[in-house]
Request: fold
Amino acid sequence: MRRIRRGHVLTAAVAVALCIPASGASTGNSAGTLPTKIGKGEGSLNLIEWAAYSDPSFANKFVRQTGCKIHRKDAGSSNEMVALMRTGGGGGGGQYDLVSASGDASLRLIVGGDVQPVNVNLVPSWKQFLSIFKSPAHNTVKGVHYGVSVQWGPNTLLYNTKKVKPAPTSWSAIYSSKYKGKVTVPNNPIQIADAALYLMKSKPSLGIKDPYELTKSQLDATVSLLKQQRKLVKKYWASATDEINLFKGGDTVIGASWPYQTLQLQAAKSPVKELIPKEGATGWADTWMLAKKAPHPNCAYLWMKYATTPQVEAKQALVFGETPVNPKACSYMDKMQKGSCAKYHLNQPLSYYKQIHFWKTPIADCGNGKKDCMDYNAWQRAWTQVTG
Amino acid sequence: MRRARLRFSAVFWRRPWFKGLALLTPPVAAFLLIYVGALTVLFISAFWSVDSFTGKLEHIWNIENFRIVFSTTDPTYLRIAGRTIGIAAAVTLTDAVLAFPLAYYMARIARPRTRTLVFVLVLLPLWSSYLVRIYAWRLILSNDGVLNWALGGVGLPHLNIGYTNWAMWIVFSYVWLPFMVLPVYAALERIPDNYLEASGDLGASGFRTFRSIIVPLALPGIVAGSIFTFSLTLGDYVTPLLVGGAGSSFIGNVVYENIGVNANVPFAAAFATVPVIIMAVYLVIARRLGAFEAL
Reply:
């Protein structure tokens, strides 16, 4: 009885929560609430960011131009970003201005009321964005923008070229016992989607259509695959540095990664390569989102404007190893590093993006009207079961 | 003015209990407010819940969090608690075995000058940061680390213990060893020499003296040391994070992830009551064994 009642309460709470952005949207759209021009900078800008998202190599110029001094809080995971935004009563707690949220966090921030609508007309580069990044579902709800896209990247398969032979072509490499005890994957519930993507291609009978929309039986099948994988895993990496150390120390030879780690390892002369396997890959797309209680909104808008210009997009892409959402960055990338535009797939046609399944927060309603998909909470529990 | 002061001190003279009250009120109030108060808030919040999608706290009373922690159909959290207690016990045992001969040497064999030197050596690791020492172990135990390099040098096969529960056991045993050596040393030093002589005069062998005189008298010291090693291991989360592998989570890691990462304070609070209960039971047993006299 208690369980049923709790279930009702939860459903009701989610339903109520889902209504909030709708009402917020109506007020957000009305004239007067959205700023129509960017005022003078407040002299300070507090960011929650992925490491190097305001790297001094390109951010110092911004500080000089605008006088907005940047204070950074690096987050290690999407969940940590959400938690940081919710400290001090939510909305960034009146402390943080912007957060570089990935697609698995952005919708939660919108529904939780932690971010506020943004006037994209104040960000001139927005019109240059690739069409899929102008109003993607993870940062735009009912036509209201809660931030501007900034960069994206795929979750790749990283391997040691000396130890892993022949070179892998499929994600099966991190699920087969060939490299037992030498595998590493991120310690993140969204990693379930990587396994679901693999099953989507290798076991069509499960009927997985979207790796983020899993029914109970599909999630169970994915979890049992991940439980088998656990026996092969040396360590679930918690941060990019963690994985770099694992590969440097020879503790792991293959694993799921970001291009950032690959670049760092290659710069340190480690024999590693990465690829997008034949099944495709999951990917992240990050958004600079404006905190509801942002104390320095003008500096925040100035940063969104600055960070999306082609030159800065190109620089950030090369520092972090990811792909700009502004295709005009292509020529700047090639100028800084020959062939880098093609290397990061910025010159690819839209069809290329079909093989990248961008992170999004799993919710119960996956569009079939039955609300029988497993939500993020269930994913979280399943992930603890796998790794705990 | 002077009269008023006199009358004031007269109150304390006439009612001695009043003096005690005035002396104890500030520390007791601080204790209740800061320590017991925080624990109570923690315990109460364990009965609330968090909306999974928005992350907002919901003040609805329920015992769902405890049901998940103690669930036997999904024993994830019981497994984590069991692992934490198991490794804490193994570390305590290891430290007791390692510390006893060292403490015995320091207390009963070494000359004063050597004793000081050994003391410094035991305490030396505490001068450097705990994190630095754990990172050092990471370098030692990793696949291409010092240990495997040394093993390879003498023709032995590689040991694959980096990022495993074995690694955690070694690192914990190393980090907490000084906390076991000191109380055992204190207990051994207190044993009067004439007890041992009397035992010998009565015809007891060296082993018999050790078993019937030294160990029982040193036991309170060992138990006192075990309070440190056990509770410090029980509450740690940094070592599992840095040297643990897949499936090395401790209670502390789950608490940390639920507060710092998932913002689910109620569940973290529910799970955090588990070590509180374990330590309460442990301290009651330790008291029975006389550990508090040896501190």
Residues 2-45 of chain B form one domain. Chain B touches chain A at residues 51-56, 58, 60, 62, 64, 74, 76-77, 79-80, 138-139, 142-145, 160, 162-163, 241, 244-247, 249, 254, 259-263 (CB under 8 Å).
